[in-house]
Amino acid sequence: MNGPHDDAPVLTAHRAGLVGCRACGRVWPEAQAVCTRCGSDLSPPDRRSLNAVWAWLAAGLIFYVPANLFPMLRTSTFGGLAGNSESTIFGGVIELIHYGNWGVAAVVFLASIVVPIGKFLAIGWLATVAGRPATVNDAHRRLRVYELVEFIGRWSMIDVFIVAILSALVQLGFVASIHPGPAAVSFALSVAFTMLSAQSFDPRLIWRGLPLRRRKE
């Protein structure tokens, strides 16, 4: 048996003639141009804003390719007499596993391979379905994916931080030295562009595709 509110209209801020501030979340009438709470400009959700999402996402994907092909670290021992070594992201994971550092290998694999690829897929999916027809459950599912992308974004630079710390600490002159490879710059740019893509996404578009009435079970 259907509940008393199964057919109740799904009222969103847009349908109520309101517009939300993306900076502080305060809701104002559509005629309002500036949020008087934080001073940000107010604009209704528009699917044309997804062009910026796709542009930043494409830039992130472009730089992610050399980030995995070129070396992330360059190590020199005894001025190169004992050999020089270079390691890519995936090569570093394999080397860590070879030396039995399974925990560190798992962290690097998740942070440098699984998380970036997952973010690319999640942002691309959100940009594809944003503003399209959806049920209330679909909208909440999209919101959870968006919040997950926002949450893991803060951990995206962990590989770059590791390279920076190693390069700063392991500078023993002739004995041993570690320097960042070209992949470090590419990876940092890929992460930055992906974060800009996520920030360009307007979460208000998640609710634009809701039907006027909920579907009966």
UniProtKB/TrEMBL annotation:
Keyword Cell membrane: yes
A family per Pfam: PqiA
GO CC aspect terms: plasma membrane
Domain of life of the source: Bacteria
Main subcellular location of this protein, as a coarse class: membrane
Entry's localization field: Cell inner membrane
Membrane spanning stretches: 53-73, 102-130, 151-178, 184-207
KW Membrane (keyword) present: yes
Keyword terms of this UniProt record: Cell inner membrane, Cell membrane, Membrane, Transmembrane, Transmembrane helix
Protein name in UniProt: Paraquat-inducible protein A
Native source species: Paracoccus yeei
Lineage of producing organism: Bacteria, Pseudomonadati, Pseudomonadota, Alphaproteobacteria, Rhodobacterales
